[in-house]
Design goal:
Structural class: alpha+beta
Shape: elongated
Radius of gyration: 26 Å
Number of strands: 10
Distance between the termini: 41 Å
Strand content: 15-25%
Strand order of the largest sheet: 1-5-3-4-2
């Protein structure tokens, strides 16, 4: 799994654990647990519950339910109703819980937070495990699918999630959705077309809470795939020097006679050095072309970061784009 998603797992886990401070561990009978009165879910996918029940039969409940006492020996489930329902399907008589006394306002906050974020964390943990199994099986989808009793597409979906990067991590950490199909679509799109992945996330964020986010993702991916790839014009001997200039020089409206002009640039998100470029920008300041310096290879440009320009790097000129002239 990428370091980006490992970071997402760590941050999500830390945030969720913060709500469990001072909670007391206890094994509670399934019959003594009552669903949360203001449950945000209106429907529970039976196939998903059965899938979770199979996992519980195999490895048990790894993450305890969070509950609060309501009197009469009963407890209200603040977070973990899916696990409780699946535990009953798996035939469990008692389930591990964390008991914490909280008021209605705190219970509502915890419930809403965990409802998506806990499922996202579970998805990432499962994706990491399946991805490790696939590597151990030398990439055989059939072997891993047989181990879990699932289809090869199920394995592919989870390994796609495991390969997600920063854009995928943003989707997870902000709790936009916990749908595995959506997570897999974004992760796959991020590797092939990062800008499209960012656009998809914006659509998902702006969608109403009741919207079918899987449907949104599927339609977006279908439309993106149907768009024709931009045609690349072949160079001709008759081309002028301006036609062949790198991307950052071809932007109109720039006077190159201004030796002191500051040319602020950005790099293509598809570049192998996009993360480095972003990191240096965040650390030192705006990236700009080093006007008084030229790289010996004309296909490269020297970029300096920050007002002092003490940090410099060379990048492919055709991966750079002019943002502004100061």
């Amino acid at each position: 799994m990428t370091s980006s998603l490992q970071g997402s797992i760590a941050r999500l886990g830390k945030s969720l654990d913060g709500y469990k401070k001072d909670a007391v561990a206890a094994n509670i009978a399934v019959g003594d647990l009552i669903p949360y009165a203001h449950q945000s879910r209106t429907e529970f996918d039976q196939a998903g519950l059965s899938e979770l029940a199979d996992t519980i039969k195999e490895v048990g409940i790894l993450s305890p339910l969070l509950v609060r006492p309501i009197g009469g020996g009963k407890y209200e489930i603040i977070a973990g109703e899916r696990r409780w329902r699946s535990a009953k399907m798996a035939g469990l008589l008692v389930v591990p819980c964390l008991v914490k006394t909280v008021d209605d306002e705190a219970a509502e906050k915890i419930h809403l937070y965990e409802n998506i974020h806990r499922e996202n964390l579970s998805n990432l943990d499962l994706a990491m495990r399946v991805d490790m199994d696939l590597k151990a099986a030398n990439g055989s989808l059939a072997v891993v699918a047989a181990k879990y009793g699932k289809s090869k597409s199920w394995v592919s979906k989870l390994t796609s999630i495991a390969g997600g990067g920063e854009i995928m991590g943003q989707l997870v950490e902000e709790g936009v959705t916990a749908d595995r199909a959506v997570l897999a679509t974004v992760a796959s799109m991020e590797r092939k077309a990062p800008e499209q992945a960012k656009a998809l996330i914006q659509q998902l964020k702006m969608a109403p809470a009741s919207a079918n986010k899987r449907d949104i993702a599927e339609k977006f991916a279908k439309q993106a795939k149907s768009k024709p790839a931009p045609k690349v014009r072949k160079s001709r001997e008759s081309d002028t020097d301006a036609d062949n200039e790198p991307a950052w020089r071809s932007r109109g409206g720039v006077s190159r006679d201004l030796a002191n002009a500051i040319l602020v640039v950005e790099i293509s998100p598809a570049s192998d050095f996009a993360k480095e470029f972003k990191s240096l920008t965040n650390k030192h300041g705006d990236p700009r072309l080093a006007n008084m310096s030229r790289h010996p290879d004309a296909s490269y440009a020297i970029v300096e970061f920050g007002d002092l320009g003490l940090t410099r790097r060379a990048y492919r000129a055709d991966e750079l784009r002019l943002l502004s002239v100061r």
